[in-house]
Design brief:
The protein is α/β, with parallel strands linked by helices. The protein has helices spanning about 20-25, 45-50, 80-85, 95-100, 105-115, 130-135, 135-150, 175-195, 195-200, 215-220, 235-249; strands at about 5-10, 35-40, 55-60, 90, 120-125, 160, 205, 225-230. Helix 5 crosses helix 7 and helix 7 (about 135-150) runs parallel beside helix 8. The two termini are about 15 Å apart. Bound molecules: glyceraldehyde-3-phosphate.
Length: about 250
């Protein structure tokens, strides 16, 4: 049985004052409910992890370097993320792939680093609008998944997030049939690669304009185990009903 996961990606938003959101969300994270994850900017990892203690909320980073340490100005490593008190790291988000030229091979190296630091990797895949309209979405996503994952995945240390680039921050959401088609294909590909048990254990998140008013429909979709939420994770007023919809799904 896969535990559902409501993950919030704050992107480059938030200062210490915004950690009050964790307090506002505290009641939403229950032992038998969905896992609730907040991924704040790196500057907030440690204070967020400290503030989340005892709330059931877990904390994740938004990327990490593939090396454990060294002369990489501005970067943070997976052991640093873990040392800050985080348990998860988002890898291969399209904003990293597009903005920083991260390749599938780079993402796979970062996943290896995350696993070596005992972090759960949330690996993002997703097609552009051009891919979707050109009919190549499934092929593009399949290739991203194949080359962004190293061997050795388990249901505990891997989560896959499907985020169509054209749905991120746009208010546009794929149809539930389109989401189901991708998630079913991801599940099948994970099973083929890592074996049926692992394939069935890895959680699959949908991300891209998830809001309180569309969450229930998305969470009722085949092989959707939760969401990777951007804008709507910045306030408890928006994120709480999304977590509640996931708990009901
Ligand atoms: O990581 C989160 C996604 O990029 C979705 O962002 P959004 O919910 O603001 O569309």
């Amino acid at each position: 049985m896969r535990r559902k996961l409501a993950a919030g990606n704050w992107k480059m938003n938030g200062t210490r004052a915004d950690l009050s959101v964790l307090g506002d969300l505290a009641g939403a994270a229950t032992e038998d409910g969905p896992e609730v994850l907040i991924c704040p900017p790196a500057t907030l990892l440690h204070p967020a992890a400290t503030q989340a203690l005892g709330t059931g909320i877990v904390i994740g980073a938004q990327t990490c370097h593939e090396a454990a340490s060294g002369a990489y100005t501005g970067d943070i490593s997976a052991p640093m993320v873990a040392d800050a008190g985080a348990t998860h790291v988002i890898l291969g988000h399209s904003e990293r792939r597009e903005g920083y030229g991260e390749t599938n091979a780079d993402v796979a190296n970062k996943v290896r680093a995350a696993w070596a630091a005992d972090l759960t990797a949330i690996v993002c895949v997703g097609e552009s609008l051009e891919d979707r309209e050109g009919g190549t979405a499934l092929a593009v996503i399949s290739e991203q998944l194949a080359y962004s994952l190293p061997n050795g995945a388990t249901g505990q240390r891997l989560v896959v997030a499907y985020e169509p680039i054209w749905a991120i921050g746009t208010g546009k959401v794929p149809s539930t049939a389109q989401i189901a088609e991708v998630h079913d294909a991801l599940r099948a590909q994970l099973g083929d690669r890592f074996g049926a048990a692992t394939g069935a254990a890895v959680r699959l998140l949908y991300g891209g304009s998830v809001k309180p008013d569309n969450a229930a429909e998305i969470f009722a979709t085949s092989n959707v185990d939760g969401a990777l939420v951007g804008g709507a994770s910045l306030t408890a007023a928006d994120f709480t009903p999304i977590i509640a919809a996931l708990a009901r799904a």
